[in-house]
Every structure is written in C-alpha cells, then in structure tokens.
Amino acid sequence: MCGIVGYVGPKATLDVLLGGLRRLEYRGYDSAGVSVIGAHGLETRKKAGKLDNLVAEIAAHPMSESHIGIGHTRWATHGAPTDGNAHPHLGGPTQKLSLIHNGIIENFAELKAELLAEGAKFASETDSEVAAHLIAREYEATGDLPTAFANVVNRLHGAFTILVIHEDQPDVVMAARRNAPLVIGLGEGENFLGSDVAAFVEFTKRAISVGQDQIVILRADSVEVRTFDGHPVTPEEFTVDWDASAASKGGWSSFMAKEIADQPQAVADTLMGRIDSDGLVRLTEVEGLDLGLVMNLDRLIIVACGTAAYAGDIAKYAIEKWARIPVSVELSHEFRYRDPIITPNTLVVAISQSGETMDTLMATRYAKEKGAKVLAICNTQGATLARESDAVIYTHAGPEVAVASTKALTAQITAGYLLALLLGQMRQSLPAAELMALGQELLKMPARVTRVIEELEPAKELGREFANAKSVLFLGRNVGFPVAMEGALKLKELAYIHAEGFAAGELKHGPIALIEEGQPVIVIVPSPREADSLQPKVISNIQEIRARGAKVIAIAEEGDTQVEAYSEHVLWIPQSQSIFSPILAVIPLQAFAMELSTAKGLDVDQPRNLAKSVTVE
Ligand code: AGP
C-alpha cells in the first residue's frame, strides 16, 4: 500500500522525505510526491512512475530549504497513476494546504458533491483530494489547524492514514489514522511520521504506533496524540528491533512472508465499502453493467491463468450456488483458440492480479469481438485489462511483489464471493435473507484469516520437515479441489519439485497408482458440520491412500474430532461455512511451500523461470 513520510526538525527536509520514500519502495507504488514549507511558502513536486522521476523533477525545479514536509508513494486505488492523481494534493482556493493519504475514503462521493456545490475546483480523480479541500475549508472557518483537521477526519468513512501541513502553521504536521498504518519516530529536537518504521529507522529506533481513530499533532519538540473526539492519549513507546537494511521488506524475511501476513488486510480492504453490516452487497463499479444483461444472463465464463484461474474455480461454486447462473472456468489461452460459444447474454469475467497477462487480454478482446460484455477482477488500478473491460471490480490487496501470488489470490476469491452475492441479489435467485446471512458470514472472514496467520508455525515446521520430498500430492473435493490445485502450484513454483493436485474423488480413477510408502499427501478436509458435508467421503479417501503407505497432512476445521485418527499431521483452520473455507485453507499451503523452499535455500520472491506478469502469449 502507499508509503508515507512526515518530518519536522533541523535536518534538510527533502533528504529525509526522499530517503524515507526510498526505503518504503518495497511497498510497491506507481507515483510519488513531496510537499515542504520553506521561505517561499508551501512547495510541492509530484510525478507518476518511480521515485527517480520525482528526483528528476525536483532537480529541474529545485525546492527551497525547509524543516517541515510530507512525502508519499502512491499505489493507485481511485484514479489512474498520473502526475495529477499523485499525492500530495492541495486544498482550497488558496492552495496553502497539502495532504497525503493512504487508504480508501468510502464516502468521498457525497463529500465531493458537497464541495462541488460550493464551487470547489478539483485537479484529480482521487478520493484523497476531497479531504484536502474539506480541511482547507474548515481551516478557513476555524483558523485552527488541529480543530479543522479533527472536524474533518470525524466525517470520513473507510480506511485512511492522512498527513497535512499548512503554510500558515509551518511548525506542525497533522496526522490521523483509521484502519491504515501510522507510526511516529521520536528524535531529539525532531520528530517523524511513517506508514511503517522503515520511513525513519535510519534516524531513530524510538517509535510509537498510533492507535485506531487517533490524531497526532507533531512538532519538532513535541508530539501530542488525541482521540478523534479530542481526548488526550498517552501512547506507548517501543524500540525498533531491525535496521534500515531490513527495511527493504518492512522487516520481513521476504516479500512473500510479508504478503502472506498481509492477507487479513487484503481481504478486509477488498470487502471495505462493498457490503453493509446487514450483509447486503453494493458494488457500484458493477452497476455499470446493464441490468438487462444480468437478468438475462445465460452463461458466465471466467477466464484467467494460473493462480487467478483457481480463484475463478472457487467463484464458480459461489456464483452457481447463489446466483443460479451456469459458469465455466477457462484457461485464457485455451478459451481464446477453441472457438467458444458466446452469445449477447454471455458475461465474461476476467481475473488477473496484474491486469497485463497477455493470454487473458487476448481472451477478453476475443470475447468482446464476439459480442460479450467483460467484467474484470483486477488488483492493479488502471491496468490494460481494467481499461479494456466494461466494468472492473478492483481487489485491494495492495502491490504484490513476490512472483508467486498469495494475497492477490485471497483478495480475488473475496471479490468472487462479492460478485456472486450481488448477482444473486440482482436476480433474486435466493431469498434475500439467505443472501444477507451469507454476506454477514463473509464479513467475518478477515478475523478468521487473522487467526490462521497467527497460527502458521505448524505449517512452516512441516515445510521444513518435508524439505527433501521429491513429490507431494494434494487432494480436495468441491471448493477444496481448487485449493488443492493452488497448493500444488505454490509448491511447484517455489520448491521446484513435482506437486500435483487432484479431485479426491478422482483418485480411484488412476492417480492412486502414484501412492507408495511414505508419499506425502496434503488433504483439504471439508467441515463436518454441514448437512450435506463431504467430510466422510474425504475421510474415506484418506483411508484409501493411508492403506497404501501415504503420509497424510490434513487441513481441517477446528473441532473435527475424526480427522486426527486418520492423519499423521493436522493443520487446523477456524470454522466457517465450507464455501468460504478456501480463503482459510489456502494459507497454510502458502506457508508450507514458502518454508520448504526456504529450507532448500531457494529464493521465494523470485523463483527461477517465472515472471510476475506474463505479458507475452
Ligand atoms: C501465481 O502464483 C503465478 N505467479 C501465476 O500463476 C499467475 O497467477 C498467473 O500468471 C496470472 O497472473 P495475473 O493474475 O497477473 O493475470
């Protein structure tokens, strides 16, 4: 997600800001900018692209010496990665206020309408600029920056870390945090702000984590923290326990480790603002598809590659179950060349993290030529796929740097559930109460993902234990089958060993011949709690392979009292409705593959032969 730096103190501010942004590059971004207050007042430079573009811009248009400033690297969510959409954003007609923002302001549209009605002029498409204008307007009314800042942040819904400086008050940086990260760096006669400690760890290891719904008033010689409603907070200081070199990955051993741990946030951010507490889904970005098409859909075709295709397989179960629309999932490169049947009532859904996978682009271009509407599920704002589709559901997993996909997958699965519920709501294919109950169950998933992330050590230990395995098989049924396929792909990609996923019911039709003494087999076991549970059938499959010498690692639901008797190892996941379990079950498989690869001394972030985005057919 976006990188944020704030500073006030005796150092040359620009050096502190650019150095901090450089160390936050690992977070991934597509534009960057800084604002400082110097002898000539507030000055701002910002550019699309990498930091080097910003540095060149500053070289061409030097900035004044300064001792206060804010800096930002943006991962686009609202508005494509352009100079105009880059942060900082200036507020109000006087343009004396500068703001940077990480997150999503859910209610920006109504706030923007309020400002437009008063004649506000916007320079960007972003939700962030709305906050800049609101705070500038409030400051004109109150004459006090902390008051104006607090009045506005209390009106914002969604996720935000916001920093603001104002030319009229050149000694203070205002900051606020809700559902997005913010830390304070404590110096001697200087103080820092950052989206994580990498922003300032070069200068100080004394830090404070800002709590939910808290405001910071940062000066060179003082730091004040208050709640949104103005009560003082006594924050706890901590000491950063890693140095700047580790900052390239935010303290994690690899981008993959970081991105696996990011999954609760990726799922929560993808849900944010799209499903209300009653479980009703609101996907404004899909409402662009004409209702007639949705009501008369005769078929939905999901096209994707690799891990994204497994997200599609899981979405198929949900869409068919909840929206009662026939769904086929096709590998993009196969779909494109098999002369598929496409009618005006066919909706093609393309799933892609990068939005640049040429196979998937070719498939969607072909589908549009044949008259189909195309809906993209994409993680990259403004990507080619997004621009060429009729509608886009963006996943909000943030930049995924490791080549092997983890958090993008759980975000794609989440988006698939949202689409399935929306289609069900629009077509009234299930009772509204039932769909809303499913939506409420979906809202519980981020907390369950957090629990899985907190309990990953057993999966990692097994990865190390099986480091010398030459082959691992994966079995699953129903929604567990795509999970098995993804588990096998992760292991192939990261550990370069034979790994194969099967539908558990397919075993007897051939693959069971692969089972020999000591063969590791990972089995995704469905919840036993549901009326039509497939758990007993999977237990039978486990017995069949154990009778032939398999070593079974079960991924099973807490409370399943049967599975332990039939497994050498059990990796437990929290209870949930089976259809939602892939978001949970896939994570131990990610950790298993990552640890097995690491134990073999391999590079989990950049596996051999692979590219993060396959931009050729
Ligand atoms: C996933 O671990 C792989 N790196 C690969 O299968 C990837 O999912 C596939 O290439 C599709 O990429 P996309 O989502 O960017 O289209």
Description:
By secondary structure, the chain is an alpha/beta fold. The chain folds into 3 domains: 3-246, 4-Layer Sandwich (Glutamine Phosphoribosylpyrophosphate, subunit 1, domain 1), CATH 3.60.20; 249-452, Rossmann fold; 455-617, Glucose-6-phosphate isomerase like protein, domain 1 (Rossmann fold, 3-Layer(aba) Sandwich), CATH 3.40.50.10490. The protein is 35% helix and 24% strand. It has 19 helices and 25 strands. The chain has an 8-stranded antiparallel sheet with strand order 3-2-4-1-10-9-11-15, covered by helices on one side. Strands 5-6-7-8-12-13-14 form a 7-stranded antiparallel sheet. It has a 5-stranded parallel sheet with strand order 17-16-18-19-20, sandwiched between helices. A hairpin with a 2-residue loop joins strand 2 and strand 3. Helix 4 packs across helix 5, helix 7 (263-271) packs parallel to helix 13 and helix 16 packs across helix 19 (582-599). The model has no long low-confidence stretch (mean pLDDT 93). Bound molecules: 2-deoxy-2-amino glucitol-6-phosphate (AGP). 2-deoxy-2-amino glucitol-6-phosphate (AGP) is lined by residues 305-308, 352-354, 357, 360, 403-405, 493, 613-614. 2-deoxy-2-amino glucitol-6-phosphate binds at residues 305-308, 352-354, 357, 360, 403-405, 493, 613-614.
